[in-house]
Design a protein that fits this description.
Elements: E1 17-20, E2 22-23, E3 33-34, H1 36-48, E4 52-54, H2 56-64, E5 73-80, H3 89-96, E6 101-104, H4 117-125, E7 129-132, H5 149-171, E8 177-179, H6 187-195, E9 200-202, E10 221-222, H7 229-237, E11 239-240, E12 243-247, E13 258-265, H8 267-272, E14 279-282, E15 285-287, E16 289-292, E17 297-306, E18 309-318, E19 325-334
Parallel strand pairs: 1-5, 1-10, 2-3, 4-5, 5-6, 6-7, 8-9, 11-19
Antiparallel strand pairs: 12-13, 13-17, 14-15, 14-18, 16-17, 18-19
The structure holds zinc ion.
Zinc ion (ZN) binds next to strand 5.
Length: 335
C-alpha cells in the first residue's frame, strides 16, 4: 500500500480495528450506543478512505500470508452480543457488504436482550464471524484476595475455554478470536487465552495494528457516540508508533509506586518522527516525557508516582513533514 508513509513497507501497513457495542435510534445519551445515522456515516468514511473490512479469521490468515489481505484491511468488531444488532447495524453492514466480527459472552446468550443460539448460527452462516468475549464478562485481570494461583487458573479456564467450546458448538464453526472484557489483560490472561485455543486476542488499547502486532494484544479503536467525522477519519489514518521495547514489559504488572515508563523507538521511527511532537497521555491527561535521541528512549515520568490502579498510556507523534500521526498505547496494571 502507498508505502510513502514511512521507510519500511512492512511497518507502513497499518490495520485499524474498530470496536462498537450498541446501536439504535432512540437510545439515551449512553456513550456506547451509536445512532444509526452516525454509524452509516462512518461506514461511508470507511469506503471513502478505501478500506476493505475483513473478519478476525481474515486477519489470522493474512498474518500467515500477506497476499491474502486486501490493500487496506480494517476490522469492524462489535462486543457483547445484543440481538438488536440484527435490526440496527446489520442491515447497514449488509448494504455496504461489510463483514464484522461479533464478540459474544456466553452467559448473555439466550437472555432477553442477547442473541439466541440459533441466531448466532445464522449470523455465522451469513458471513459474520463469532468470537468470544468470555463467559460472564468479568475483569479477567482481577485478583481477589485469598485466591490461589490454581484457583485463578481454573477461573480463567472456565471463562475462556468453556465459552469458546460453547460458541464452537452453537455456531458449528471454529472460534479463533477473543476480546478481553473491558480490554483488561496481562500475561497470565493472555497465556490462558492461548491455551484455550484462541489465535487472536483484542484489547481496547487505541492505535493501529501492524502484521507484527503480537496476537495477544491487538489494538482496537473504541468508537463512542458523538465521534466527529473528522476524528473518525483521522483515527483510520493513524500510523503505528513502533517500539522495540517497553519497560515494564508488555503485559507485565508493575509494583506500586511507579515513577516512570520507558519506551524504545524502533530505528525506522527514529528516522521518521519529529521528536518535538512526541506526547504521552495517561487517559486524557498529558504526562511529561523525556526523549533521548541517541538511544531512542522515551521516558514517561509520573509525578506524583502512580500508586495502584489500572490505566491506559497513549503515545503519539507526528512525522517530520507533519503529514502523518503515529500512535501506540498500552495498559498498565499497578498493584
Ligand atoms: Zn463487553
Amino acid at each position: 500500500m502507498g508505502g510513502a508513509e514511512i521507510s519500511s513497507g512492512e511497518t507502513a501497513f497499518s490495520i485499524p480495528v474498530l470496536c462498537y457495542h450498541r446501536f439504535g435510534k432512540n437510545t439515551s445519551q449512553d456513550a456506547y450506543s451509536l445512532d444509526l445515522e452516525e454509524f452509516r456515516r462512518q461506514l461511508e468514511i470507511i469506503r471513502e478512505e478505501e478500506f476493505t473490512p475483513i473478519t478476525a479469521a481474515g486477519l489470522a490468515d493474512g498474518r500467515l500470508d500477506r497476499a491474502l489481505l486486501p490493500e487496506k484491511p480494517l476490522l469492524i468488531t462489535i462486543d457483547d452480543g445484543y440481538k438488536h444488532f440484527n435490526t440496527t447495524a446489520r442491515p447497514l453492514l449488509e448494504e455496504f457488504n461489510f463483514p464484522a466480527t461479533l464478540f459474544i459472552y456466553t452467559n448473555f446468550v439466550g437472555a432477553r436482550a442477547g442473541f439466541s443460539r440459533s441466531q448466532l448460527r445464522e449470523l455465522q452462516s451469513a458471513g459474520f464471524e463469532i468470537g468470544s468475549h468470555s463467559a460472564t464478562h468479568p475483569k479477567l485481570t482481577r485478583r481477589p484476595r485469598g485466591e490461589t494461583k490454581d484457583q485463578r487458573a481454573e477461573r480463567l479456564r472456565q471463562e475462556l475455554s468453556e465459552s469458546r467450546e460453547k460458541l464452537t458448538k452453537w455456531c458449528r464453526g471454529e472460534v479463533i478470536s477473543l476480546s478481553y472484557p473491558y480490554g483488561l489483560w496481562d500475561r497470565e490472561v493472555a497465556e490462558a487465552a492461548r491455551q484455550a485455543g484462541y489465535k487472536l486476542m483484542f484489547t481496547v488499547n487505541p492505535g493501529p495494528n501492524t502484521l507484527e502486532t503480537p496476537p495477544e494484544r491487538l489494538k482496537r479503536i473504541m468508537i463512542l457516540r458523538g465521534t466527529r467525522d473528522s476524528t473518525f477519519r483521522n483515527q483510520l489514518r493513524e500510523k503505528p508508533l513502533l517500539f522495540s521495547a517497553s519497560m515494564p514489559g508488555w503485559g507485565e504488572r508493575a509494583i506500586s509506586p511507579v515513577r516512570q515508563m520507558i519506551f524504545t523507538l524502533t530505528p525506522e521511527m527514529l528516522s521518521c518522527i519529529d521528536p518535538a511532537s512526541l506526547e504521552a497521555r495517561r487517559r486524557s491527561s498529558v504526562v511529561p516525557l523525556e526523549y533521548d535521541a541517541q538511544s531512542g528512549r522515551v521516558i514517561v515520568r509520573f509525578s506524583p508516582p502512580w500508586v495502584r490502579g489500572t490505566d491506559l498510556i497513549i503515545l503519539t507523534a507526528q512525522d517530520q513533514e507533519g503529514k502523518n500521526r503515529f500512535k501506540n498505547s498500552r495498559l498498565l496494571i499497578v498493584e
